[in-house]
Amino acid sequence: MSFWSSQTLRSHLPSLIEPFNADQIQSASYELCLGEEIYISALPDTPLRERKKIILKEKETVAIPPGQFAFLITSEIIKVPNNALAFISIKFKFKSSGLINVSGFHVDPGYSGKLIFAVYNAGPLNFHVGRGERVFSIWYADLDKADENPRNKIGYDSIPTDLINSPDLVSSLPYLVKRLDDMEKKIENYSVKQAFVFAIAIGVLLSFTKPIVDIFIQPLLNMLKSSLPIY
Fold this sequence. Notes:
Keywords: Hydrolase, Membrane, Nucleotide metabolism, Transmembrane, Transmembrane helix. Pfam families: DCD. By secondary structure, this protein is of the alpha+beta class. About 30% of the residues lie in helices and about 30% in strands. The radius of gyration is 34 Å and the shape is elongated.
């Protein structure tokens, strides 16, 4: 397997990437831009009407909150020949700020369509991305021969609903934090209630035992006290 050089990319990619821009060839890779769609996993208090894809205008930005997942789609349509394989990643300047690619790292031979990246904001701050920004990189490499079982499924042209419908709260860090906070409050409330019940029980017990002490125990104590010798 040999990776395509910048010269090979410049020769082959005009028929494999649409739209193609020669300026986006950098060090044997091609830089891909963020497309018009993005989906961010919902925060615990996000209203249902807002749990949907975000459609970005040209150069519009959106923030991925800390601890949240997002689906990002490329603006380019990618094709991979049957005799090649492609590798994909997020550019280092984005990864160094905490944006992590948690989806696949390669594109199958025969694939044709836009690419969808599942990302996670592992940083402490909101991470802003903008439509048309060069966020991703792709590398092409030759196979020793044309693959006899290339991908023949239709590629993506938008972020599909089955990805959006996937449970996202389970993996959301803010959601887990909220659950821990709720659990702590429940434990605290339970402890207060237990202490209150215990105090009432002690009070009731004392109210029942005092007459017994007055009638039986106290006279006995008085008798014992009077029978003791005085020195």
